[in-house]
Every structure is written in C-alpha cells, then in structure tokens.
Amino acid sequence: MSNISGKYAIVGVAETKVGKRPDASTHSLHLECIKACLDDAGIKASDVDGFITNQPLNDAHRSYAVRMANMARMQPNYATDLALGGATPIAMVQNAVMAIEAGMANTVLCVHARKRGTPDPSPGNPIRHGDEHWEEPWGHFSAVANHAFAAQRHMYEFGTSSEDLAHVAVATRKHACLNNNATMRKPMTIADHQASRFICEPLRLFDCALESDGGGAVIVTSAERARDFPKRPVAILGMGQHHPHFSLMDAPSLTTLGGKKSSELAYKMAGLVPKDMDFAEIYDCFTITTMITLEDYGFCKKGEGKDFVKNGRIEIGGELPVNTHGGLLSQAHIEGMLHVTEAVRQLRGNEVEPERQVKTAKAGIVSGHGGSLCMHASLILGAL
Amino acid sequence: MSDTSDNRGRPVRKVRPFLEELEAKPFWANLREHKLTAQRCNACGKYFTYPPQGSCPYCLSPDFTWVDLSGKGKVYSFVTYHRAWHPAYQDKVPYNVSLVDLAEGPRLISNVVNCPPDQVKIGMNVEVVYEDNEEFTLPKFKPA
Questions:
Q1: B82 in contact with A at a CB cutoff of 8 Å?
Q2: Which domains does chain A have, with CATH numbers?
Q3: Which of A181, A189, A193, A299 is least surrounded by Cβ atoms within 10 Å, i.e. has the fewest?
C-alpha cells in the first residue's frame, strides 16, 4: 500500500452564513455552498467529476448526492452520500482522495449543509439513528444524554468536574467572538456556564452545541493539479477512521473512543506526532467530546484533559489553539464541516480575521465524531 | 409540545418497543411472564449483547438459546434528564436513565426506579423489576 500523504490537496473552500436561515431550505443551502465553493476554486460545475454529500437528517431519501449534483447540472463520474454523523465531513474528504487515487475522478466537490436552526420549509422523512426502540421506551432520546453518560464516567474515573468542562465552552466562545460568521458572540464566563441549567445532568446548556442552519464545502484534487488553482492549496497529510461500537450497550469504553485509533492512523500516514500540530479543530458537539478527543489524540494523557484545557492553553496564542472558529458550541453546528473549512482557511494564512489567525500555522488536525460516541474520523492538513 | 408533536412541531412517534421484531420477539414475550432473558451462543457459550440479533456477535454461529438471567446488575453510568424530548416524559423530569451492566455481561439502557435520581451512583447494585402496561412489559431496576 502506497502512502498518499501530500499527494492530494484542498483547492476550494466555502461556508455559508450560519445561524438562523428561515430564507433557506436544506436543498438551497447545498446549492449556496456549491456556488461559493466553485467560485473560490475558480472553476465551473462542469469541471467537477466527483461529488459527495451527507445524508440530510431531516430529508432521508435515495442518493442525495445524485439529486444535488443534478440540481447544479453536474454529471459526476463518482458520487456517493455518507452517513457517519459528525464524522461525515472528514469521511467525505477521505472518500474524495480515494476516488481520485482510484482513477475514478479528478476534481471532487464535498458539500455538507444542515437545516436545524429553523424549521425546514420542505421537510422530508427524518433519518433513523438506529436503536430508538431500545432507548425511547425508557425515556432515552438524545445525543446530550449519550454524552452525559460519558461525562459521568469521566468524572467518576478521573475526577473531572462540570467546572472543568466550562473551560472548553469559555475558550470556544472567545474564538467565536472573533469570528464574524459565528452565532454566539457574547463573551461567556465560567460562572455563566455554571449558572446555565442542566439539560441532561451532568451536562448543562452551555456544554451543548448549537442547532444551526448553514453549510460548508471543499474541493479536493491532486497536489500536482492544485498549483493551477487561484488560492493557496492545502495538503492532505494524514487520514484515519475508527468505529469501535454502535450502541452504548456495546461500547467498550465511554472515556476512550474511536479517536485514539483513528488519530494514530492519521499521524502514522502523515509521519507526524501530536506536538507537530499548530492547532486542532476538535469536534465539539458537547464539551466532554472535546476533552476526551484531546486526550485520545495524544495532546495530554488520559484523564488529564481537565488540566490541559485551562490557563489559555487551548486559546489563540496558547500552546494548542482549539476550535479557532468557535466550534459547534458557539459558531454553528454543521456536523463538523466548518471544522474542516476552518482548518483549510487557517492554513491558507490570509483568510480568517487576523485576531484569530494562528501564527505560522503549518499543520493542524481535525476530528469528526458521530452517533452514540461510536464513529470517528481524523484528518491532518498542512500548508503547501 | 403536545401529545402528537414535539418541541419542533414535528409529529412524534409513539414510544413503544417493536414487539414483533423477528429477533426481539422472544425477549418481549418472556418479559410478559416477568422473565428477563438474553440469547446465549450454543457454539462459544457467550451471552449476546442487546439488541438481540440473528447470530452470535463473537463467533457468528446462528445456534443460540434464550436463557433466564439473574436480574442482578450494576450501574455503569447514569444521567438525569432535566428536559423532556417527548411529550410522554414531560411530567416525569427530572428522571434517571442508566446503563445497567447485568451480572451475566450484557448491558441494558434502562431506568433506576424506587430511588431519587440524585441518589443513583456508578457501581451501585441493582435488581430487575417489571413494569407492566396494557401492551408490553419493561425491565427496570431498583437498588439491590
């Protein structure tokens, strides 16, 4: 097996205005992303020969990718829609690389948009998440509760507290305050977090991601072709996935997740180690997810996340800036697509607001996490 | 939120197990007789996990037997819902949901009852109680 590290690059990137978008539908948000991403890369829809989408949560139907391709009059030679929850955006980039490496496509557009902040004016059938009938009769419904189980275990095993988790929310909010396209731009204190109500104890309101409308997109091609595009290309250095269970009833652990193995695979492909990362865009559906993933990714030892996230270490200017855009917690929840676009824009070096630009950003890692803490994908990107 | 729509105004499903599901039908039928059961592999001897499935998750043998469990277990983790996601639970908050590791190995998502939510602890010993309604019986757990 050949190592494809550095052979492929991201040459186009786009994000829509996020937050509440009553003007938009799931479909229209996808089209908005497609247009903006093609413009960013300086190409036409007819130049795209590979196309990847997610499976929209509130509009499950037969191949969403082919439907959206058709709406933009693309006739791709490779198309698929993926359903790995919050691991989907990274998996899209990985699938794009695989399609190009396999000779099936040259220019792959990956789009992920979501309509969860306001009601979808054209709703379809919501997608199932799988084991509802083994959960709902006991009153178990939500992603919050799945992650609250993990937080409870982390507190039991390592002495982590709700106040420790607050540091993740506060640092993330600081970054959102510097991002013109973030939903929550009012500064948050530890006390604000501690005063927020329990949603599913031990997780509070400010431990939880937003529900948002919006989307993002990237275009993947070979590093060789990347030089012909107008913007500075960003290299794909490492990729990994790991999916250790499906239901919490089968989870081997709630405090070490798929991210451990997934990141090890990505570091190995990239030939890099955690200390080579200049920043990290870590999936933050809940504060506990960020803390566990920082541990699983080797930035600190297991159980030491509670200390790692303090004293400005994960803030811009700190040792490892995390979620420099404001994350799902404070920018918008597009299932991690904006973690990918943010990493690309950080590595381009001249696109984000100067106050939140990571100085000399050469390499960064992005995590995606989905389902009942069961799905994970990792991506290491580098400046070209 | 009403009985038929959720907090986003979408229609809600009735909260009910799939009693007729092929693999799970014996589980629900046994509960009706107040027996908590699990599948046990006749090839490798291991207990299946839940939800029930057509062959052993460890060796893929389709040869298994439904066996009675002791009904004893320990709380692996727990949460307290302070918000209802479904109208049927609106009057029940705050309520407990726990991951219960049964003595024989399989884990269930269930509730610890007969105990205030703030008194539940990780590692707490619990035992099964059966909650009957007109259509089905749910296994729940009380402090042992």
A1: yes
A2: 8-118+209-383 (3.40.47.10)
A3: A189
